[in-house]
Amino acid sequence: MMNAVLVGCGAMSKAWLDAARQIDGLAIVGLVDLDAERAKARAREYGLDGAVVGTNLEAVLEQTKPQAVFDVVVPAARRDVAFAAFDHNCHLLTEKPLGDTPENARAIVEAARRAGRVHAVVQNRRYVANVRRIRRFLDSGAIGKPTSIHADFFVAPHFGGFREEMAHVLLLDMAIHTFDAARYMVGGEPAGVYCQEWEPANSWYRQGSSASAVFDLGGGKIFTYAGSWCADGFRTSWEGSWRIVAERGSLTWDGSDALKAEAVVPGRDGIFDKTQAIEVPALDPADRVGGHLGIIRDFIHAIETGSEPETRGADNIKSLAMVFGAIESAETGRRVAIAEEAS
């Protein structure tokens, strides 16, 4: 039996609790939120009648003594939650992003290392079936090593609330999903970035709704990202739209179900090398999928077996470094080296 306390009972907590109720042997023994009534409402909604409800995480941890903490708080509160969890000998699974600043992210990862606790991040785009299929396909060498990775993200949601007032809204709130997926699919190690942000006339955000970035992912791999939170019309998938160019062919993915690849074959049609369509194999049974559910299961498995979860903080900080590197580049107008930040 694994007992966990969930802290942060806002809208995102529903995804966590929906997943948690599907896992045998996992019990939510405490709910914490600055708004006690909101925490009580979540307890009633999910039938958690025996859970301890409170506004103080330390007090609830003392009372419940769980093995794990599920962190669904706003990023600015993440460091305090992490330190409290580790001080109470708890493992920690946290919503993205890992931290609200590079310094806090590094401090959390180091605290987890010192405490000897499992620490992972809900970076759930890795748990999308086609992301797994792409990684396996590229690893097979069917089209050679990837050289150029391109992702477009054009969505125009009217969130209301804090997002429309925050700085660097696209890069800080959403882009890490695309950045982490790119890094995972091609086995990239971020080394540098040049990025520009702008606020188009059609935007309803305060700052940073549109951005374009070029990343060096090491080993001759370049990743370009173009995105907007205010591009009405021809909306992309929430997963983005992708083209990956490799040494002997290319792969395209619309972010939904259309996943295609072509490989170079002998001969030419005029000035162009001939290509032919090749199949991207189906999902492997060993591939971990399922969004929040898959990640929570992976986290629990790591605790039970003494292994490391795939989205462990010590690795995920490299994707977060891409975000902060892009923000610094946009603010300074220069290329930013991020290899040291990601180490």
TrEMBL record:
Q: Which SUPFAM superfamilies match?
A: Glyceraldehyde-3-phosphate dehydrogenase-like, C-terminal domain (SSF55347), NAD(P)-binding Rossmann-fold domains (SSF51735)
Full protein name: Gfo/Idh/MocA family oxidoreductase
Q: Which domain of life is it from?
A: Bacteria
GFO/IDH/MocA-like oxidoreductase domain location: 131-251
Q: Which Gene3D superfamilies match?
A: Dihydrodipicolinate Reductase, domain 2, NAD(P)-binding Rossmann-like Domain
Q: Which GO terms describe its molecular function?
A: nucleotide binding
What InterPro entries has UniProt attached to this entry?
Gfo/Idh/MocA-like_OxRdtase_N (IPR000683), Gfo/Idh/MocA_Oxidoreductases (IPR051450), GFO_IDH_MocA-like_dom (IPR055170), NAD(P)-bd_dom_sf (IPR036291)
Where would one find the signal peptide in this protein? none
Gfo/Idh/MocA-like oxidoreductase N-terminal domain spans which residues? 3-121
